[in-house]
Amino acid sequence: MVVALNSANHVLDTIPNAYQTALAQYDRAVRYLDLDENVIEYMRWPRREFSVNFPVKRDDGRVEMFTGYRVHHSTVLGPSKGGIRYSLDVTLDEVRALAMWMTWKCALVHLPYGGAKGGVLVDPKTMSQAELERLTRRYASELIPLMSPHADIPAPDMGTNAQMMAWIMDTYSMTVGYSVPAVVTGKPVNVGGSLGRNEATGRGVIICMVEALKRRGDTDPGSIRLVIQGFGNVGSHAAAYAYDLGYKILAVSDVNGGIYNPKGLDIPALRRYYAQNGALAGFPNSEPVTNAELLTLPCDVLIPAAMEGQITKNNAPRIQASMIVEGANGPTTPEADDILDERGILLVPDILANAGGVIVSYFEWVQDLQAFFWDEEEVYRQLERILLRSYDSTAHMAEQHNVNMRMAAQMSAINRVGKALMTRGIYP
User: Fold this and answer.
1) H-state helical runs in 216-288
2) Cβ neighbours of 277 (radius 10 Å)
3) 198-348, what's its fold?
4) Eight-class DSSP state of 91
5) What is the dotted CATH code of the domain comprising 2-179?
6) Rounded distance, CA 5 to CA 14, Å?
7) pLDDT, tens digit, for every residue of 80-132?
8) Catalytic residue among 57, 81, 105, 117, which?
């Protein structure tokens, strides 16, 4: 556990260790599977872990050292795939957990990838654009022995964006001597990015939510109230797409807190306000709420789309939503899962609900390799097709084994990787 303190050094909460959560989920799921115990042990471990300390020249001429990580959890199904995050909260255990979840996510939706993740300990908001470019290019140069379109393909995550992916692609390309767009995904469209990539994760969350609601008979969007924790790339696009479909968004939040209007928020106006002000606070016709309060507001669907470890045994008993759709990676601890399950709250797990981002990253990679690009309509059509197919197979697994959706998703994904490993065998 990591203990969070406020400025007066009072204990605020305990943040669960993400890797312990990932391993606990894994250990629960494999009990249901007919896999060799050696295969089970093999898949618990990351294939490789890379850490690096590297210098970056600041604008004032100072040289500052930064620490970065890249973890490849699996390459059984194909090259490793996963985002890079810039945050002061990055730890090796967090990157290990995110890499493992990426393995299961890719396997669940039938992508030919294993899981990876990377991170740098930095607050990107404290750096100029020039400093961010120097940091990104230096970190990318350290990863070049690991990266290639057929070995490890990074993507953006929290604290990183399309421009940074362009810098990574350019750094790699300049090193090898020719342009290699397929070495990274989430790039700007004008250097080989895919239409629909920015919206993909948030849109996918809502596609899964709509399917879950439809399966329980809720087909009137105007009667469904949503609360969304997080207003970054995932949360803001999820809110926008849900609003366009007619759902009522009561509350949203960012790292500094949230806003609430029981009659619903005007999401297009809120996105304009957020772009201008860089904060949600002060938006007209809303009242402030904390992130802790937001999670327990009365609503029909709660979408945690911020950090891992947000729904715990401490607040799970007070959640009023009848459905949770995980936009973030690992937002719910195993203890909270048990409480939500006992209370009959349907949870659509992260490795299914937020798989839209890696699905469209896969589309981008395929388009780059072929130099043949799709229009936005085709991207969205294929995204929805894959997510609905994966939702259906997960729901079938849950029904067949009388388990919840989290367990079913993990079982399907782990079994797919395990069977592939058994077919390939252990080298040498």
Assistant:
1) 233-244, 267-277
2) 11
3) Rossmann fold (3.40.50)
4) -
5) 3.40.50.10860
6) 9
7) 999 999 999 999 999 999 999 999 999 999 999 999 999 999 999 999 999 99
8) 117
